[in-house]
Structure formats: C-alpha cells, structure tokens
Amino acid sequence: MNTLNDAGQPAVRIAGLEKWYGSYHALRSVDLTVARNERVVICGPSGSGKSTLIRCINQLEVHDAGTVEVNGRRLERRTPRMHEVRRDIGMVFQHFNLFPHLTVLQNCTLALRRARGMPRAQAEDVARHYLERVRIPEQQHKYPGQLSGGQQQRVAIARALAMGPKVMLFDEPTSALDPEMIKEVLEVMTDLAQEGMTMICVTHEMGFARTASDRVIFMDAGQIVEEAPPEAFFTAASHPRARQFLSQLL
Fold it and tell me: Which of 11, 140, 208, 248 is the most exposed place for a label (fewest CB within 10 A)?
C-alpha cells in the first residue's frame, strides 16, 4: 500500500517509539506509518501497548524516545501550540467523557465555541449535521444520562467529528458497551471508514477489523509483531502469538 498522499506526506509517522512507566517498558521501538484515508486496526492482548501507542499520537501520553509526526508536524513534550495540533486529531475513548450537566447539543458545541470561537448558531448547525451523521439527531436536547451507552458513544463520535479532524483515533470504543449496543456504534464507524476517514482504531471487534480496515496491526509486549491486510491476517497470520490470539477470539 502506498503510505504517502499526493504531497508525499503520511497522516501519521512513528519511528523508534519508546515508553516507560517506571520500570515497566510499555512500548519498545515501535515503527508505524499511516497513510491519509487509511483505516488501521490495532489489536492484541491486554497490556500489549495498544492504547498507549494511540495516546502517544495526540500526546495524551508523552513518549520517552523516538518520534511522532502527525500531518508532517513532529510532536513532543514542548511542541508549541499543541492545542492547535490536537484540533486535527479526534479521539473517542472507552468511556464517553460527556458532560452530564450539558445536553447532547451543548456537549457537541462546547469545543467549537471555546476552541474555535464559532458563533453559537453556526456551532449548533455543525453539531446537528454530525448528530445526523451518527443517526441520533432526535436526541440533541436530551442529557447523557437519558441515553443508552451506545447512544452516548455516538454522541462522543459526533463531538469529535464536529471539530473537523484529519485523523480519528478510537481507543476500544465498544468495550464499555452492552453487547446489543455494540452493533450501532460499529455501524457508525464502518460508515466513516467507507467515507475515507483516516482512522486508527484499537479494538477486539474482529468483524470490524476484517471488513472495515485496510490493515491490521498486531501488538504483543509493547511491540508490533505482525501487520498485514485483513484477509491475510485472519487467514494466514505468520506470527505464533498472533495465531494464538486469533484462535481464542474466532
């Protein structure tokens, strides 16, 4: 796969990434390049470094060595105007992180108004557009506590999309949901993938990985030990640890 866009610049480039938590070595010399409009799924056992890796992409976790570049800009502890860089990186977490005292519409307009200085009416138009896109426009005046878990996660996706990110990061977005709610969130994510959104998604939802991703990354013990197109990964994984992982899930 061509990992460069027309300007010769990938969406994300990671080289030699290292991350320690005290004596625990969470990431070990990780290299990863993600093209614009590419959909990458990262999977692996618990503790393999998946979430740490994507949290380093927007510097929610600060790496100890190596480099992270997003849209050609190198990120590090003292990156100037980091808040501007983060505007181009949307992130959806395991838990929804919605403000319970704000309505759905207010949750989706808060960053637009405060970070982008957008007038209220314009911000509300943008928010309604993305609530329509994630299929819950009728919930805009409700509070998060009045919604199901799946609906709250779709609000979180709409809120991230409203900022116009160039890269979307998903950190196990369905892991906190009841089984019957997972499908509705995965359908929204699949729609985004089909529309060409650059996505990096940590998930154990192997059906989504197989049908919606361009590439599957498998991590173990803080390292990328296998990467392949989805069909090759699921039918002919070469690394023994990847095969063991798949045998337990499929």
Answer: 248
